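Ticket #4471: structure output looks truncated?

Reporter: J.K.
Steps to reproduce: submitted the chain below (288 residues) through the standard prediction queue, then opened the result file.
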Amino acid sequence: MPRPRSLTDDQLVAAALAVVDRDGLPALTMRAVARELGVATMGLYRYVSDRQALEVLVVDHVFRSVDLDLPEGTWQDRIRVLLDRIRVAVARHPGVVPLVLRHRQAAPSSLRLIETTLSVLTEGGLSGVERVIAQRTLIGHLLGFLQSEHFAALSGPGTIVLSELPEPPASHTELAAVARQLDVTDTRWPGKVHERDHDERHPYLALRHELCISCGRCVRACDEVQGTFALTATGRGFDANIAAGMDQGFQESACVSCGACADTCPTGAITEMSLLDLAPEPLHEVTT
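Returned output as attached by the reporter:
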């Protein structure tokens, strides 16, 4: 018969948060949490299977701390109160912001937040797909704000990185400006074109694979500047491309709609939706 549990989930979370608040998120390891609790490292695996399971517990604790009893008022005011309460709950432990981005959909208590948000949006007259888009837009805005507030402040290194990128050209893309500068007007070696559908389901960003030259700028901006890890390089040779959300698209990815990827893309493969109508036509496909 197994021994009874001597540690509760709240104790595990408290120890994990103590480590993160004191030493930062990189210091969060099973060994560090076990030391904080005064138990052997292997003993911790009786309660959580690995560090990821521990991280989910932490995110779930943060979400459970949000008071969902909203005051009377207009639906807009009630939404503002709810989002501000989520912001305050996360801001109590700024080091866990990346964990919230990574595990928000795995934490059971996130369902309470989603249901409350959808309920208030229903009061505002939204329904169906429009209500879901509104909910995801609000959460995306909040997550982007938290990311910028705690990990991408104007005084941080991300500002320097973005400021050192080439100035945007007067026309549509940086690649087009370089082509004009070098007097490249025709394709000398026409080749096969990527035949993949555009991803234009995200409210703010469009991904058009046939324009991608796999330079990797967007991946670095997403990873190193924003710390979101929503984009990744996939494939080899001709099949090399950029994928969002395990190649399911921006809408299903961890994207927080910051726009850093679109700012760094030299070809317009990733474009803000509001700029699509401003692009010169036709957009020439990139051949490889």
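Triage note (M.O.): checked the attachment and the full token line is present. The chain has two domains: 9-151, 163-278.
Status: closed, working as intended.
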